[in-house]
Design brief:
2 copies of one chain form a homodimer. With 407 residues, chain A is an alpha/beta fold. In chain A, 35% of the residues lie in helices and 27% in strands. Chains A, B: Belongs to the aspartokinase family.
Chain lengths: 407, 407
Amino acid sequence: MALKVQKFGGTSVADIDRIKSVADRVTKSYDQGDRVVVVLSAMAGVTDKLISLAESASSSPDSRELDVLLATGEQTTAALLAMILKDRGYTATSLLGFQAGIITDHSAGKARILDIEANRITALLEKKHIVVVAGFQGRDEDGNITTLGRGGSDTSAVAIASAIKADVCEIFTDVDGVYTTDPRICSKARKINKISYEEMLEMAILGAKVLQIRSVEFAKKYNVPVHVRSSFNEEEGTMVVNESADMESVVVSGVTCDKNEARITLKKVPDQPGISATIFGALADANIMVDMIIQNTRSGGETDVTFTVTKSDFKKACEISEIVAKEIGATDVLTAENIAKVSVIGLGMKSNSGVAATMFKALASENINIRLISTSEIRISCVVEAKYAELAVRVLHTAFGLDMEEM
Amino acid sequence: MALKVQKFGGTSVADIDRIKSVADRVTKSYDQGDRVVVVLSAMAGVTDKLISLAESASSSPDSRELDVLLATGEQTTAALLAMILKDRGYTATSLLGFQAGIITDHSAGKARILDIEANRITALLEKKHIVVVAGFQGRDEDGNITTLGRGGSDTSAVAIASAIKADVCEIFTDVDGVYTTDPRICSKARKINKISYEEMLEMAILGAKVLQIRSVEFAKKYNVPVHVRSSFNEEEGTMVVNESADMESVVVSGVTCDKNEARITLKKVPDQPGISATIFGALADANIMVDMIIQNTRSGGETDVTFTVTKSDFKKACEISEIVAKEIGATDVLTAENIAKVSVIGLGMKSNSGVAATMFKALASENINIRLISTSEIRISCVVEAKYAELAVRVLHTAFGLDMEEM
């Protein structure tokens, strides 16, 4: 008997039959004595369809009105699930974001949750209702409808779990949990049973799509135990929880690969104060997010500056770099689109000094050249040529002892 | 320069191009200096699609949750129109029923408006916004989403017009206005320039689909001038207004025809107190609405009781009548499905005694037999065989001088 938030994503509510399977799942928990709040996404594909519709109305749809439109997606699935539950004789009530008391800031399209006024949810739970909340949406302090951005239903679920002090927030998805790496790249990938918020956050940032980044930040901040598991079977998935002593015995928990970046190098930049500010100020003015930045020392008062941006910003970043290069007297701008960022992540790095060496040795053993390196407290990332990305993932997976044991 | 509510129905917002035409219409008024509140229905067909979706989830969808689902229809069109208006540089804001302050009772699916808290609408109007309200929906006092039933957007529009003291409530539709009769039946039907609330109400009740009955009741109660006009052209339509002296010069304003009823007769019912109560009590217990009731006096302490019900209730009403007939000792139950109710409506009847005679004479001139007659202060209805319905409409239209003059 537990207080649970259960979140189901778009593929889990893709059609009426799938929503009926969600109802099976939810009522099973309820019948076991659990109190359940269900958080739903829109049916798979619906949000994209609504965006297309908006784009046929306006080339740049007004963000407030786009939120009003997009909110219909989760409204639909929440109403349908509540109907199915009531049809089966359960007491259930759907709540839209504003009814569930999800208060956000005014940033239409990517609103941040400021507060959850959970009194209506808790009152319904006390009356033994299954509460079905439309995810992804809230309202700002003026009563406007807002949405939380892609994957926002994860954040809705974690935030509600935090507000009602749920025992667990279960995120049902189309995979079995969080894996040591992408199983499509490495057949020996293993499901991770338990992972810390910090590691999960690094993995989400580095492209593991299983949880939205902000939902992990929220879970970490409010210490909400998150259980990532499959909506297709009853297996235990991955628990995302606070760091604990036993976790540090594992040096590396996962390996990720991100092919969504491109590299730009400004050659022979004068090594003077303020030059970096000029380069990255110009990029920031154009709203371009820079990921890695490396500055190599050269002789003769000159240096090379290299950085990476997402592929979608690449063209614009190149144009700006050419202009800035002339301005500051850099000799050349070199670019590379065919790169991949391969990373190893693990809490154990904090107390283990040999991780970088192991990583570089493993890559060298396959003659994979490292172009850029960056590190955080629990992560090491190397940029390599894109064609080596999958090989790099597999060799690192083996090198850090992550391979699944043969059955 | 006027304060206007403009309501557009499903065919007027059927797709993005049609919604753009609505934007043309609205901005034209706005550019002329009018302050405008727009009320929209869902795209034509969408409400039916949502009902089918609900029926695939549950054989009898919960009414509260059905309202949550159906409300997405008007939410979609309101957001899209607001986007288009903003795209064209106008300040515009969409409001859902609950945001527009439309407070209803708790009757999900057929809620009645209790109050309009129009302060948000008026504040936006003062800031020169075009306010786009999702029709058909409101919220009850507990914050649940409710809907107003079929055609409810008309009622939303009239209620808002009343609350903000609009100069006029324009109902844009796919016809040019209210006609003296159905132009598909009678080619000489004329558009009525001005009609009283009372007449419009009778015509709506008798099957003229141009305005929802409750919207007319609302307009009458709060004295809201309603302008029914085409969304496809700029012609003046029909003004629905308070009764005025000049209206009584026209004896009959319109002729209607309703084929949606069926007739049941109980033969030789004992002419005793309480017998009618037994018959109609049993029908009422089964939630069957009875329209006309006629009791013919017969000799020998017996009488025939005839009544009409809608065709959808006919089968059930027959079963109940058979049971009741046995109970009370009636000899027979006769039924007729192929009937039509032809009515003439006009304020002028109040002060004109010859209307019934003219009606009966006109029908007799074509050998149309009258099976039942009922009257109100401003209406006379005759039930005739269905095959004569169109002929009856045309002959009455001519007899009361309604025919369009030849060009």
